[in-house]
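Comment thread on ticket #2218

A.B. wrote:
> Attaching the input chain for the structure job we discussed in standup.
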Amino acid sequence: MRVLLAGASGTLGRVLVPRLLAAGHQVIGITRSPQSAERLRGVGAEAIVADVLDRDALLRALDGQRADAVIHELTALRKPPLRFGGMTGTNQLRETGTARLIEAAGAVGATRMLTQSIVFGYGFRRPRPVPLDESAPFGEPEGSRADPTIAALRSTESQVFDAAGIEGIALRYGLFYGLDADVMAPMLRRRMLPVADHDGLIPFVHHEDAAAATVAALERGVAGRAYNVADAGSSWRHYAEAAARAFSSPAPLVLPKGLLRAAFPYAAQLMTTMDLRVSSDLARRELAWTPRYASVEQGWAAMSTG
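C.D. wrote:
> Ran it. Output below, let me know if you need it in another format.
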């Protein structure tokens, strides 16, 4: 297929592009940076320099292009968000950006679209005693400051599912990790990644595994489906301690939950309140996807030795 990829220069995009090319697909990457465009061309992709939120400029940049599918992997995250305001740009990309990319799909003749969603749409605060499959309620407000993020996830999914002439698929990824080691390792060495004494689970997914699932969904995903793409989960403390061991760093500081919530309110939702289990059985059955890294220990160990 000829694939228009938004977010091609992001952390996930950088591993997704070569996987798509290796699978025989052609890639047209959208990026705002001329330098990133050159890097894309250097690995064999085409590149378009455009801001997805600038509708007219985006459509002008796509004039004359043709594609079979669009993949939306845009975020505005340069570092882990600590406060709720750190999600504002990404929320806009999931709401307005999705609408712009649906228009782009029409302009290039694409009939298939995948969008990045996250398992956090199942909720940050509700206790989940059993693994949730894709039939569980998704995108319901909780009455917390995380509601705009949950609403943005609901928005991107509903837009691609409802778009006329589009086979829409949503990938509900776990929390990405792995290829951000260049950010994580220095933070761990300086003990700048604190943890809480909380055993609630967070679903994670290594960037390499997320990219593999995305290619599989492009090729085999069922229109109108959402797919959970995550491991069995671990606590934030376990995740950070596994990373510290992999990079031979000091153990993370354990701080009181109240202090974490005051200092890092968004991140503290994950560190101190979340307990979420999800099932990725549907992705295993329909996409023939199995994570290479079944746990954060395996994923971090691979990054430290790779």
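A.B. wrote:
> Thanks. Noting for the ticket: DSSP finds twelve helices and nine strands in the chain.
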